Fold this protein.
Amino acid sequence: MYKYDNYDQEMVYTRVAEFRDQVERRIAGKLTEDQFKPLRLMNGLYLQLHAYMLRVAVPYGTLNSEQMRMLAHIARKYDRDYGHFTTRQNIQYNWIKLEDAPDILADLATVEMHAIQTSGNCIRNISSDQYAGAAADELVDPRPYAELLRQWSSFHPEFSFLPRKFKFAVIASDEDRAAMRLHDIGIQMVEQDGAIGARYYAGGGMGRTPMIGPLIRDFVPVADLVSYAEAILRVYNRYGRRDNKYKARIKILVHEMGAEKFIEEVEAEFAHLQGQNIDAPAAELERIKGYFEDPAFETGLSDEIDRSDPDFAVWLDQNVHTHKQPGYAIAVISLKPTGGIPGDASSAQMELMADLAERYSFDECRVTHSQNIVLPHVRKQDLHAIWQKLVEAEFASPNLDLISDIIACPGLDYCSLANARSIPVAQKIAQRFKEIDRQKELGELKLKISGCINACGHHHAGHIGILGVDRKGTENYQLLLGGSGAEDVSLAKITGPGFDEDGIVDAVEKVTDVYVAEREDGERFLDTYRRVGMDRFKEALYG
Amino acid sequence: MKILTGNDLKTGDVVWWTGYDWSRHVSDAVPVYDNVTDVIAREIAKRAVSDCYTVEAEKTDDGVLPIHIKEKIRATGPTVRPDLKISPPDPAAGNWVI
C-alpha cells in the first residue's frame, strides 16, 4: 500500500501543528465559534448530537495493521472504546474532546493518517473497490489511480471551496462494489485498444435528490486522468449553484444543464487545459503503482478447504470471496452481529482485526462501504484458523450480503441532522431474521437505512431501503424497494405511506414474503421486484 | 416551557443551564424567559459553552425533559448504548455541576 514520502509526512505534521494552534486560540477565546467552525471542519471535527465527532480518512478503505491498531488506541484513549466504520470507508469517533483533537491528529500522523478533507465543501476521501488488488475480475488495481487523484485533490487551492462537497469512486471491474455511479464523479478503469484509461461518469449521488451519474466520456487515457477530473471540477466550480446548498451538488448542475451541454463544457475546458502540465508525469504514476504491487503470494498452494465443520462451511460460503491468486481467498469480517450496531467496532475488535491482517493477510485490511472489514489476501488453508479466532471473539457472523448485513447511518442516536433513529430499526430487523438459514433462503438482499434525507445509509441504493422521517415529532419510516448501487444501478422507489418503528419491521417481512411467493428460479429479491413490479408489494403492504 | 442548552467548549459535552451554571444533567435545567439572549451572550463570552439554543421542555416523573425526541436523546444519550447513558445525578457523587 502507499507509503508517505517526506512531502506527504511534512504536510500532515504541518497541518497538525496548525490545528493545534487554532484549537488553543479557540479555547483561549481568540477565535469565536463562527471563526473556528470552518477550521475544525477542515480537520474532520464536527459538533454532533452528544459531543464532538472526529471523522478519520481511510483512503480508498485501505489500512495496514499498524494503522488499525492506532484506530483502536484512539478509541481506547480518547473516545469510549469504540469507533464507527462509515459508508465512505472512513471511521468516526463519537465522543471526542476538543482539547484532545490535536493530540489525536498527531497520533494519527505517526501512522500516515489524518482527518483532512473529511468534511467541508472540498474533494472528500476517494472510495474504491474493497477487493482492489485481490479480486479475480478486476482489469487493474484501481488504487494507484485513486491515490493519484488523492494527491492531486489534497489541499488543491482551486477546489477547497467548492459549491458543495465532492465525492469520487474509482473501480476497475465490471462488477461495481463501490456504488460508483452514485458519486459526484465515478471512474471505471477500462481497456481500449490495449491501453488502460478511465471511463468517466459525473453527476451521480444520493441525498435528497438521488441521481445516477450519466456517462461523460467513454475513455480518457491515463495520461489525462487528472486533467479530465480538473476539467469537470472547473465546470462545476464555475456553474454550480452557491445560492442554495440543497441544489449545490454537481448532480443538480448536470441535471439542470443537461448531460450533453455539460459534456460540451467539460470538453472545452479539457481542451483548454492541454499543455498546461496538469497531469503527473508517467514516472510518478509508476512510482505510485510500485506501492500497490502484489504481495509475495506463495505458489502451488492447494485450493482445497476442509468443509467438515458445518458452521465454518456456512461462513465460508457467505463471507469468503474469490481471489485472483490460486490458493488464496478474500475473507470478510462482518460488523453486523445480530443485535449489534452496524459498523461499530470496539478497540479490542479492531486489534483482533489488526492481528489477523498482520498474520494472515500480508498486513492489510480494508473498510467496505457496507461497513464491514476485509482481509484481502488470505491463504485458503488459513481460513479455518481465522474463522476460529473470529468465533472466539463472537465476531463471525456469516451474513455478508444477506438481509442482516444492513447498512445503517448513525441516525438520531448520534447525528444532529437525523430525523429518526436508524440503529434500533436495523437491530430489530436483524433480530426478526436472525436464523441464518432463513437469511440464506432469502439470498442476496441489500437492506439500507438512513435516518434522514441526506442518505448516509444509502437507502436509495437498497434492494430494500428505509428512510426515517420526522412526522410531527414522531419517528416514521418510509419503505423503498428496487434500488441498487451495483453495476445494475437503480434508485429505489417509495412504496407508500410510512410505518412506525415496529411497523417497518413487519413491512420488511411482508415484502420478503412476497418475494418468496413470487420468485422464479435463481432470482434475487431485486430481480423479482423488477419483474413483478411495485404493485404486488404494495398490495401486501397496504391491502 | 423552554430550557437552555449548549455544548461544553472543551469537551463537547451537552450541558443545560441551571440558572447560575451549566449541568450535564437535564433534570437540573430551569426554565428560561426573556432574558435568555443575555444569558447566551454572557456565557459564550465566558468561553464555557458553544452552540447555545433553547428547546421546548416539560416536567415529567423523571424531571425536566425536552419534548422533541431529538433533544430527548441528546439529553439522555444514545438509546442503543445503555452503558453510555447519562445517569440522573447521584446525590452521593459530590459536586456534579461543571
Observations:
- Confidence is low (pLDDT under 50) at residues 89-98 of chain B.
